Amino acid sequence: MNFQATIVYEKIWNAINKVCDTCSGTGLANGISCVWCGDGETRGYKGSGKYYRYIVNKGSSRSSKTVSLIDIYDTCARSQLNKRMTVWRDTKTDCKKTVLNDAIKRFKTTGRYKVGQEFNKTESIFTYDTGSTFEIHGTDDEETVHGLTQDDAWFNEPYKISRDTFDQVDQRTSEFVFLDLNPKKDHWGEDIEKHPRSITIHSTFKDNPFCPIEAKKKILSYQPIKMCSVVIENKIKEHDANGYDIENNSLNLTKRELNELQRCIHNEERNTANEFNWQVYGLGTKAERPHRVFHWEEIPNSKYNEIKAKTYNGVDWGKVDPFGILEAKYYDGALYLHEINYESEDKLKSKLTLAERNQIAELPEGFVMWFFNRLGINKNDHIACDTNRPEKIRALRDAGFDYAFGAYKGAGSIVDGVDGLSSIKVYYTSSSINLKYEQENYSRKVDRYGKVIDGEFEDLNNHLIDPARYIYQFLRREGIVRNV
Q: Is the pTM above the cut of 0.70?
């Protein structure tokens, strides 16, 4: 079946078909398992013979990573017998809204939808005439994560998927593991890139012939003068570039260079230039948020568990938004944080059994009582709660959590708490993936001209930052943490 493929598709195709140089694709070297592509131990075991195991697709927005992997999966499913190929996001619902919708759209526009394949809408599985399947999954289903085996596994934008979950799927995958992500923050995917049998395929929106023109214009509008090629190559100093006489062109710049420079000048004039956005969404490289507040340090869960100190908890209620619950320990002048929950109350309730629903319905705010008991939170712990749901705090007290209280939220409390968290050493556990994301992205607020507004912070990425702030302020008011 013919269709127009991307450059990225070609690179992925070459990667999955490259064979091991040591064993020439047999999986055996000198009569025993090849140490490169086999297990390196079992005599007579035939390894895959493939050169790569992990294929990491990294790059900018609209760089064709997703559509290229959809085409790879479809091509393999059509040409190979009984191959099971899975796609994973943090929830199956999200995977259906993104990858599945993109796949159906791609198949329809290229005349492949239900040609040589059947689609089970209920299960979100494409089954091909070859017996191969292209399946949509979510890591929110623990039984599937721990029980499903597959030939190939694809992790689509796995920002909210933990390394432990990845490892569970990885060990149940016999051939290739694919990752695609934008390099906008630190991620365990960087560790996968270091594996000797890993290849990173970098791409930008310029590699995608299907990128909509308006999307391309939007991405190009982020490019600042300082990141214009003539400035980077030192043909013009940044402070001279804005006033360069394009018509006279005294430096004999090429037409392409002039067009790029003129576009960057216009971006600055229109206040659309944004170095962070250009690095991440234009160039597909990792960049730090320009007004990031925190730089906390990650530690293994085992190190956190070894700390013998009293535990404290912080809560940010969330019915539709994340219901953030943190546990904390204060030891030797440092605050240690561990994420307990990030799922919304509605999402958690959707997983309840009928018996649990009936049990919870008997009491006002019965879910809060039931959930905190299920989490095993110590009833002697102090629990600093967002004050916007006083009835939930009362429910915790009724359930025996006598030290649940409304967090301090007086005038200037946000600035005070953020400054305090910035003044001490803060660590977070490696399993706290949402806390990691928030502390990387929690930023100071800026005005329309991009200038920082003193004492104000973006009301984003704070469902766990706020509980951390509540805990810190409680500790300070109790004299456990001294004023800095």
A: no
Domain boundaries, the chain: 7-207, 223-271, 297-477
Angle between helices 413-423 and 465-477 (to 10 degrees): 90
Are 328 and 383 spatial neighbours (Cβ–Cβ below 8 Å)?
no
**E strand or H helix at 303:** helix 301-306
Sheet order of strands, 133-138 included = 117-120, 125-128, 133-138, 84-89, 152-156, 177-181, 54-59, 198-203
Among the listed residues 347, 278, 382, the one whose alpha carbon sits nearest the alpha carbon of residue 60: 278
Cα dihedral 288, 290, 292, 293 sign: positive
Residuewise pLDDT in 10s, the chain (484 residues): 788 889 999 999 999 999 888 888 887 877 777 877 765 444 334 457 788 999 999 988 888 999 999 999 999 999 999 999 999 999 999 999 999 999 999 999 999 999 999 999 999 999 999 999 999 999 988 889 999 999 999 999 998 888 889 999 999 999 999 999 887 666 888 889 989 899 999 999 888 888 889 999 999 999 999 999 999 999 999 989 988 998 899 999 999 999 999 999 999 999 899 888 898 889 888 777 778 899 999 999 999 999 999 999 999 999 988 999 999 999 999 999 999 999 999 889 988 999 889 888 877 889 999 999 999 999 999 999 999 999 999 999 999 999 999 998 888 899 999 999 999 999 999 999 899 989 988 998 887 777 788 888 888 889 999 999 999 999 999 999 975 5
Residues 6+ apart with CB under 8 A from 459: none
Q: Pick the closest to residue 436 from 333, 331, 292, 313 (CA basis).
A: 292
Identify whether the C-beta of residue 319 lies closer than 8 Å to the C-beta of residue 389: no
Q: How many CB atoms lie within 10 A of CB 388?
A: 10
Q: Which CATH class is domain 7-207?
A: alpha beta
Instruction: Identify the CA nearest to 231 among candidates 265, 203, 204.
Output: 265
- Write phi, then psi, for 73 (nearest 5 degrees): -60, -45
Q: Kindly state the helix (H) or strand (E) to which residue 367 belongs, with its residue range.
A: helix 366-375
Three-class secondary structure assignment of 16-73: HHCECCCCCCCCEECCEECCCCCCCCCCCCCCCCECCCEEEEEECCCCCHHHHHHHHH
CATH for 297-477, options being 3.40.50.740, 3.30.420.280, 1.20.120.450, 3.90.1720.10: 3.30.420.280
